[in-house]
Structure formats: C-alpha cells, structure tokens
Amino acid sequence: MPFSLAATPISSRLILATGKYASDAIFAEVRRRSGSRLVVIGARDFDGATAGSGDATDGVMRLPSTTGARNAREAVAVAERARDLFSTNWVRVHIQGDASLLLPDPIETFQATADLVDRGFVVFPMIQADPILADALQGRGASALFVLGSPMGSLGGLESPAMLERLLVRCRVPVILAGGIASPSQAAGAMELGVSAVCVHTAIALSTQAPRMAEAFRQAIEAGRAHYESGREGASGLTSFLDP
Questions:
Q1: Model confidence pLDDT, tens digit, residues 63-118
Q2: Counting Cβ atoms within 10 Å, is residue 223 exposed (0-12), middle (13-18) or buried (19+)?
Q3: Strand partners, 92
Q4: Strands, E assignment, 45-132
Q5: Which of 5, 52, 123, 125 has its CA 20 to 30 A from that of 43?
Q6: Are β-strands 175-178 and 197-199 bridged in parallel, bridged antiparallel, or unpaired?
Q7: For the chain, give me the number of helices (H) and strands (E)?
C-alpha cells in the first residue's frame, strides 16, 4: 500500500528512525522485518549513516532531520550540511526550543520552513496537531507534515485524536504521525483516521524483541490503512461539525 511524498512513491507506510537501537545488526533486522523504505536520520547520526545518493543501495531512502536544532538558523545550517552529505534536498524540520517540553517550537518551525523552501529544499516540518499552523505551513510550501501524537519519546499515545482528525480534514499534503506512539494498536488507530504513514522510533528501538515489534507495527499499519480505505462506518463525530 504505497503512498507518495513530494511525488515520490514510498512502498511502506511505516517510517523508522535511527538511534536508540542496541546495535547496527538489530536495526538492520528491524528494517528488514518492518518493510520500511524510509528512515529518518537525526543530526547526531549523520556521520554514521550511509552518505551518497538520497536512495541508499539497499533501497531505503534517508530523510535527514534537524533534530537538536534550537531555532530556525540552526535548522537551516543542519539542512545545508545534510544536503552536502546525502545529496538530497529533503529535510524534516524538527526544532525543539525548550528541551523540557519535548515539543517542537511552532514559531521557529514556520520560519525554518519558509527559509528552507526559499533555498530549494523539500521540507517536512514536525508540529503538534494544530490545524491553523498546518494551514500556514502548507501555504508556505511544506510538502508533508510530521504531526506529534504526544511528546517525542513519551510513549503517551495519541493524546488528541479530535485535533488530529480536524487537521486531516484540512490538509492537502500527506500527514505522518510521529512521536509518542507506544503500540501497534495505536498506530492502527491513527491509520484508521486517515494519516498517510506512521513514524515509529522509541516503541521499537527499546523493545526487548525489536525486530518482532517492527513486524507487529507493519501489520498493524497495513490493517489500519485497509480499514480506512474500506470506508469507516458512520460519521466519526469528531468532524461532523464541518458538514453543511
């Protein structure tokens, strides 16, 4: 069940991220059993990741992230470095202004998105489930949105499904749920709401059987998407207020 990012087909709706894994061998097995074809690489992992073309020799695309940037200026610098290292103009903008909150800074994120779009980047900003901010970012050229389920690494699940669904109604670009997803059932539920993909990191990386957990997430995401495409019964109640 492929989807498209910036007119590029991605064959799996499960996105992984580097870091936290016990070993490179475990991560390689996680990638194999998950079927993922897109891996987010945080700035601290740039040097250890495969450089070269945007499409790695194993068929897995690398998506550099500005994780660790504290403002728009730092995010632009990280993106420029990633473009040189990986020969890709794709970048996920993740700016954490206040580390204690584990949430992206919306003002700096918008500024970085605008600056990077003007520099020719294909930008995927990370935000909370804020429909107004999502509209603004789409209008400024964001190609997709990474939307938090709950604070990064918290395993808090989907804290505000109502806001997520309202955001989905308004979005014209792919929405990827990322952050806080603790279980395959939560990923399936997000897919049933209509997100295009789910990015899972901590729940897999810290599992005692990470490859098996990755496979469970793959199956759950496929099931959730099948449910969505089959047509959900009745109105959700969360967006019925938008009906004429």
A1: 999 999 999 999 999 999 999 999 999 999 999 977 788 899 999 999 999 999 99
A2: middle
A3: 65, 124
A4: 61-64, 90-93, 122-127
A5: 5
A6: parallel
A7: 8, 10
* CATH, range 3-229: 3.20.20.70
Look up residue 210 and give its two tokens.
């990470």
Q: Given the structure tokens 């047509």, which residue do they identify?
A: 231
Phi, psi of 14 (to 5 degrees): -105, 120
DSSP H or E segment with residue 198? strand 197-199
Q: Which amino acid is at 25?
A: A
Q: For the CA atoms of 127, 130, 131, 133, what is the dihedral angle to 10 degrees?
A: -60
Residue 169, Cβ neighbours under 10 Å: how many? 12
pLDDT tens-digit readout, 143-160: 999 999 998 888 889 999
Number of Cβ within 10 Å of residue 194's Cβ equals 18
The pTM is what? Answer: 0.90
The size of the chain, in residues, is: 244
Q: How many CA atoms, within 13 angstroms, populate the side-chain half-sphere of residue 76?
A: 15
Give the pLDDT of residue 50: 47
| Residue 114: its H or E element | helix 106-118
